[in-house]
Design a protein that fits this description.
single chain, about 450 residues, alpha/beta, eight-stranded mixed β-sheet, 22 strands, about 25% helix, binds S-adenosyl-L-homocysteine
């Protein structure tokens, strides 16, 4: 096989990046936008020693799992991996990926619960649109995959439609007032991102504009522009200052120019205050089911629960009614402020929050003699530091660890470390928090083996 060959290929698998895989002369051939069951002619683009890459030349026979693509930005923006595949097939792929990672990388074989799925579209309560200049005007949409090139996306099926209306209104506002937009190469220009959040239950909206400067011009007109879209639901307009040359979207300073500095939502019956810098689950309805599962695994009644990587405290607070004591740890100060506010406004006197690195705080808590019955871990994609896992397993030695993960590969790696320290991964439940993308969330229950007690 060589470059530019056209070969016949049966697609037998799909990666979480949305690329189909077939085999030719025992070499794996990756073909984007194909699905298991497709019979195709593939145009070979690149041949390496262990695999090859191709594009579709012709579909000879389409798979039953193939569907028509309903988005003009598919594969241009870096968002969806699976718009060409029916949703139930995608959910199965994700459940398998979690199982494979835990089995192969982690060397653990828990009881796998069925993947939880809800609506595959319109589920996001948050959207961050990068803005950039093009020859004739402005692009506002999403970065293309693995790059910082902005693809102008006038609509996105993963967001509520009203976000697209605000995106358009904001673009018109920038053009009308001739406001400059940020250019990453020259580090000049003002507007970097439009960032929107809408609370699912209260429908309160926060609109935040990220700027490379100290002051946003035409701020009254800006507020009017968002009011025209969101009406009375608009509760907060914020200017976020980010003058750094960085990939991080938000700067540290926020200036409220309209309404409140936060919005309020309700998650698992708990009123939650959400500030612009605090993490909040983007898929509210799946998050509620995930938290319910976490609670089932924690069995919080009468227990002391340590909630590490707690964000605005939402997981711990969802079980504060039943637990004896909740201790949350989070590194972002604004999120900790939200967590403390959320505890008090909901009347939970048994919840406290510490602003620190998870490993550092865990060490200090352990030195103070705190011994939680259950530890919840919900780290970012890179998973937990080994040092933290050792403190949890050796110093706290809780009866259970409930691990919430947005990357099953790092979850699997960490389950392996826990296993060596006496913790068996007994259950795992995948949740499709991000339908149509390659991401999947997992809750795992790890239990201290009898021999380790
Ligand atoms: N459990 C929360 C947040 C999960 S996201 C929820 O369900 O909403 C992961 C959180 O970990 C983020 O809030 C992030 O700010 C925080 N974080 C990242 N690195 C951290 C560290 N080293 N120590 C403590 N918290 C950290």
């Amino acid at each position: 096989m060589k470059k530019n060959d056209i070969i016949e290929l049966n697609i037998t698998d799909v990666t979480l990046q949305g690329s189909g895989v077939g085999h030719y002369d025992s070499l794996a051939v990756f073909v984007p936008e194909t699905v298991t069951g497709d019979k195709i002619e593939a145009h070979i683009l690149k041949v390496k020693s262990n695999c090859a890459f191709a594009k579709v030349h012709r579909i000879i026979e389409p798979s039953k799992s193939r569907i028509g693509v309903d988005c003009t930005s598919f594969k241009k923006c870096g968002g969806c991996a699976f718009r060409h595949i029916n949703y139930s097939f995608e959910a199965g792929l994700k459940a398998n990926a979690v199982k494979n990672n835990l089995n192969r990388i982690g060397g653990v074989d828990p009881q796998f619960e069925p993947i939880t799925t809800l609506a595959p579209d319109g589920y996001r309560n948050k959207c961050q649109y990068p803005v950039s200049k093009n020859e004739g005007g402005i692009d506002i949409g999403f970065f293309s995959s693995h790059s910082h090139r902005v693809v102008d996306c006038p609509g996105c099926n993963l967001q509520p439609e009203i976000f697209s209306k605000a995106q358009k209104a904001f673009k018109d506002f920038l053009l009308k007032h001739k406001i400059s937009v940020y250019d990453e190469t020259t580090e000049m220009g003002l507007v970097r991102h439009l960032y929107l959040r809408r609370a699912n239950v209260t429908e309160e909206v926060m609109a935040c504009v990220v700027i490379n400067g100290d002051k946003m011009p035409f701020v009254n007109e800006l507020v009017d522009c968002f009011k025209a879209v969101f009406g009375d639901d608009l509760k907060s307009v914020i200017i976020n200052i980010n003058k750094k040359k960085t990939n991080v979207i938000l700067g540290e300073k926020c200036v409220t120019v309209f309404g409140s500095d936060h919005i309020t939502d309700v998650l698992c019956g708990v009123k939650v205050r959400i500030s612009p810098l605090s993490f909040y689950q983007v898929n509210h309805d799946v998050a509620e089911l995930l938290y319910k599962k976490a609670k089932e695994y924690v069995e919080p009644n009468g227990k002391t629960v340590l909630d590490l990587y707690c964000g605005a405290g939402t997981i711990g607070l969802s079980m504060a009614k039943e637990a004896k004591r909740i201790i949350g740890v989070e590194i972002i100060p604004e999120a900790v402020k939200d967590a403390k506010f959320n505890a008090s406004t909901n009347g939970f006197c048994n919840a406290e929050f510490i602003c620190d690195d998870a490993a550092g705080a865990a060490k200090q808590l352990s030195e103070k003699g705190i011994r939680p019955d259950v530890v919840i871990l919900d780290p970012p994609r890179k998973g937990c530091d080994e040092e933290l896992i050792r403190i949890v397993a050796n110093d706290f030695a809780p009866e259970r660890v409930v691990y919430v993960s947005c990357d099953s590969a790092t979850l699997a790696r960490d389950c392996k470390i826990f296993k060596a320290l006496g913790y068996e991964t007994v259950k795992a439940a995948p949740f499709d928090m991000f339908p149509r993308t390659g991401h999947v969330e997992t809750v795992a229950l790890l239990v201290r083996a009898v021999s380790a007690i």
